[in-house]
Design a protein that fits this description.
9% of the residues lie in helices and 58% in strands.
Length: 126
């Protein structure tokens, strides 16, 4: 099974703790497999779980480097940060369709591309 090949059947989540400005921040990372639809080639990544994000987000630089086929949106979507301000990195202009693997489960999803983000993939709420 492809999920085994791209190592997506490893433990579901891992909690990382960092310090920022004197307070402890917790980041919950999940190891997932991403499969290109056109070639069925896969890659394993650590995705950030973030309930404050709407939808799924991927770094556009990572997507290009991995050869994912980007789909241009008819109309760009503006991105708002938690504080309500527009994201300085610009609107979402592209998406990519992938198969996501986690613990033996596969889901075909469309992921929004954002430029110059810190994490490779962010899994938010639908």
């Amino acid at each position: 099974m492809l999920a085994t090949i791209i190592n997506a059947d490893t433990p579901a989540s891992e909690e990382k703790v960092r310090k920022a400005e004197g307070r402890t921040l917790r980041e919950v990372m999940v190891k997932i497999g991403l499969e290109r639809i056109d070639t069925q080639k896969g890659v394993t990544v650590e995705a950030l779980l973030n309930s404050g994000v709407t939808g799924l987000v991927m770094s556009s630089e990572f997507a290009k480097k991995q050869g994912f086929k980007l789909k241009k949106l008819e109309r760009p979507m503006n991105v708002r940060n938690v504080d309500g301000l527009l994201n300085k990195k610009g609107p979402i202009e592209y998406t990519v369709e992938v198969n996501i693997y986690n613990q033996g489960h596969r889901e075909r999803m469309e992921i929004d591309m954002i430029r110059r983000q810190k994490w490779t993939v962010i899994l938010g709420m639908p």
